[in-house]
Amino acid sequence: MSQAGESWRIRAEIDHGALRHNAAAMRKAVGDHAGLIAVVKADGYGHGGPEVAQTLAPFTEQFGVATLNEARAVRAALPDEEILILSPCLPKEREAAVREGFIPVVSSAAEAKAYAQLTKVKPVRIHLCIDTGMGRIGVWQDDAMKTAQEIAAIDGIKVESVSTHLPVAESDADFTAQELAGWDKLVGQLRPILPTAKFHALNSAGSLQRPEHAADRVRPGLALYGISPLPDFQKLLRPVMTLKTRITLVRDVGPGRGISYGRDFITAQPMRIATLAMGYADGYPRQTSNRGAQVLMRGKRCPILGRVTMDQFMVDVTDLPRDVAPGEEVVLFGKQEDGEITVGEVAAWAGTITWDVLTRLGNRVVVEHLDFLNRR
User: Out of 202, 243, 280, 310, which residue is the most buried by the measure of CB atoms under 10 Å away?
Assistant: First the structure.
C-alpha cells in the first residue's frame, strides 16, 4: 500500500490508540499468567505490519508472522523482539531463518533434524506444531508424544514452544471444547519431555471465550485489530481501520439507464449517481455487487448500484443534498458522523469473512497511521 503524505483517492486510516486498547483488552481477558503472541502476518492484517508491531510491542512477548520476509520486515522495525514464523519455511529458507534469529515452525522430527544439520548456529530454536483438528500443518496429536521424544533427542535443537490451532473456535463450541480438553491433557504429558517449552493454542475467539485454556501464551490476531469473531465480545474492542475513498463524478440520469457492466441494475426513475474512486483492484470486494451493499456519505447509508468494477463503482445519492460533489469523502467501512458500517457487514455482503476483507487492500490505498508513537 502507498504511504501517507500524498493526495489520496483511497485511504486506510489506522488508529493506533485503538490498537493499544485492544491489546490491553486481550491481556485482561486471559489474565496475567499468559503471555501474548501478537499475530501481525499479512502486513498486520492489512494494517501495516511493522507499524502495528511497534505499537503492540509493549504488550507482547513475541510476534507471529507467516513468512521469512514478513519476519524480516518486523525485525527491521523491532530488532530485539522474538518472532515466530507460523507457516513452514521452504527448504532453501531454513538456514537463513535460523541464522537471522527467527523461530521456525516444524511438523515432524525429520524437519527438526533438517534445521539442526543446515546451520552452525546452536542451539537451533524451533516451534513444534501439533494438529488437533485443523488439518493444515503439524504432527497429528496421536503421534505427538513420540515426535516430541524424537525431537528432544536431536543434538542442538531447542523446542522454544509447542502449539495447536483451533479450526472452529468461533463456530462449533462442542468440537472446540473436546479439542481443548484433549489439548490440555496432551500439554500435561508433553511438559516433562519438553520442560522449557511454552504452550499455546488460543486464537482470538479462544482467548475471549475460553481463557481458562490459555496455558503459557495466547495468539490473538483479528481481535487486536478490533474485530471479535464472536459478536458477544465486540463491546470489548475498538475497530482499528477506517477505509475511505472519494467521489470522482456526480451525474443525473434518467429512467431506463443501465449502470455498470452487465446492465444488472436499470434505473426505474430519475436518479442522482456518484462514481467512486475505488474498485476491486484496490480490495473492495466485487462479490458485493447487487447484494445490498452500502457506503457512508455525510453519515448516511447510500446503496451501491450494479457491479463493482476494477477501478470504480457507483452509488445512489438521490436522497442526499444537491451539493454532493467530486472530492467528497466516502466511508466504505468505519464511522462517519452518526453512521457506521462494519467490516463484518462488508464481509457478509461479499459472502466472505472479515479477515479476507482486511487483507485484500491493494497498493493504491494510502495508509495513514493515526496516534502512532514511533518507538525507533
Answer: 202
Q: Give dist(CA 181, CA 141) in Å, integer.
A: 13
Catalytic one of 28, 122, 185, 261: 261
Is the CB of residue 76 less than 8 Å from the CB of residue 133?
no
CATH number at 332 reads 2.40.37.10
Rounded distance, CA 337 to CA 339, Å? 6
Dihedral sign from CA coordinates of 55, 61, 66, 71: positive
280 is catalytic: no
**Tell me, what's the pLDDT at 347?**
98
Pair (21, 133) in one structural domain: yes
Establish if 221 belongs to a structural domain: yes
DSSP 252-302: EE-TT-EESGGG-EE-SS-EEEEEES--GGGT--GGGTTTT-EEEETTEEE
In tens, the pLDDT along 307-344 reads 999 999 999 999 999 999 999 999 999 999 999 999 99
233 in a structural domain = no
Q: CB within 8 A of 141, min separation 6: which ones?
A: 130, 131, 132, 164, 182, 183, 186
Q: Among the options 41, 113, 198, 244, which is catalytic? A: 41
Q: How many domains does the chain have?
A: 2
Residue 115 bears catalytic tag? no
Query: What is the value of pTM for the model shown?
Result: 0.94
Cell 530488532 belongs to 79
